[in-house]
Amino acid sequence: MSNKRDYYEVLGVSKGADTAEIKKAYRKLALKYHPDKNEDDTAAEDKFKEAAEAYEILSNAEKKSRYDQFGHAGMGGASGFGGGGGGMNMDDIFSQFGDIFGGGGGGGGFGGARGGSRVIKGSNLRVKMKLTLQEIAEGVQKKIKVNKLVNAHGVTYKDCGTCNGTGRITRVSQTFLGAMQTQSTCNVCRGAGKMIDKKPKEVDDQGLTRKEEVVEIEIPAGVEEGMQLSVSGKGNAGPFDGIPGDLIVVIEELEDENLRRDGEHLHYDAYVNFVDAVLGETIEIPTVSGKAKIKVDPGTQSGKVLRLKGKGLPMVQRYGQGDLFVHINVWTPKKVSNEEKEILEKLKESENFEPTPDYHDKGFFQRMKDMFQ
Ligand code: ZN
């Protein structure tokens, strides 16, 4: 099907060669035929590409086994070599080099990545937002003023003179392989490839200026103190006409005068007078969505906890709603009149006033168990 040479023959290794042998053989050929050492020599370039392709296949266990079984026919177009013209392009080959010659990273290695200039993202902007428990319970839309960097009007750009608009700087250095190119991001334009041609005085040299802007933010119900919401693209504008960063909203919870929060649950301390605790009464309590009425049964003990299902807060990351726990406290009068004192002394003698708690008059430990189940 093709007139390609056998990959093993290209690298000059036997069919039984192991990974190390294959790598070593390729390394030798890559050095010999490297374009930087063979300028304008198309025969050398063909050999360089041929060796790279052979290595690409034989260094990959899966591709190697397919090649061993089916030969070149087994490689089809599927491996990304493009059926027709054949061979790998130079970028592919150079990107392979990190593997072969080590180094890599940090701008070392060979002139690998040959991408163009890049668009720079602006920095993130952080704002704090104070929310009431009611706002947290329902979710809220807030408009806030932010002072942020924006792309200034009246700025014109030209190609960066240092990198000629490519965003990259190429250096030729002498290495053990001969003259080699290395590339790094241009430190003048930070890779944008642009610089300012003309700008108004107040604009900084990245084309940005400060401006107050009103941003509308949608806060979902159920957020918590310290939570951070990210609003994409509402942060500072990117240098050199780049793309904007994000707006990070840090949630702060304002303390509620009645309700205490514990995750998605709420707690309320209710005080009932002694008579209501004995005879039973309906009392009014605050919730996040207004007042609610609850029944205090006759004979209710101080410390009893009533659980109001679904009267807590919505959960922000999953479906569901917390509960409201009403803690009943029986109010003990701090002072009494002589007349009241007389009545109380009389009541004290009644056998009904002798404490005889049973399982249902839940004490502290039982209540704790309820709260954590
Ligand atoms: Zn530049």
- Fraction of residues in helices? 10-25%
Using only CA atoms, what is the Rg?
38 Å
Provide a count of the helices.
Answer: 9
Beta fraction: 25-35%
Q: How many runs of DSSP E, i.e. beta strands? A: 15
Order of helices and strands: HHHHHEHEEEEEEEEEEHEEEEHH
What is the topology?
Blueprint: H1 7-11, H2 19-33, H3 42-58, H4 61-70, H5 90-101, E1 125-131, H6 133-138, E2 140-151, E3 156-159, E4 168-175, E5 178-185, E6 194-198, E7 208-219, E8 228-231, E9 247-253, E10 260-262, E11 265-273, H7 274-279, E12 281-287, E13 290-296, E14 305-308, E15 324-331, H8 338-348, H9 364-371
Helix pairs in contact: 2-3
Bound molecules: zinc ion.
General description of the model:
With 373 residues, the protein is α+β, with helices and mostly antiparallel strands. Helix content is 24%, strand content 28%. The protein has nine helices and 15 strands. The protein has helices at residues 7-11, 19-33, 42-58, 61-70, 90-101, 133-138, 274-279, 338-348, 364-371; strands spanning 125-131, 140-151, 156-159, 168-175, 178-185, 194-198, 208-219, 228-231, 247-253, 260-262, 265-273, 281-287, 290-296, 305-308, 324-331. α2 packs antiparallel against α3 (42-58). The protein is elongated and about 120 Å long. The protein starts with 6 loop residues before the first helix and ends with a helix. Residues 77-86 and 102-115 have low confidence and may be disordered. Zinc ion is lined by residues 160, 162-163, 167, 186, 188-189, 193.
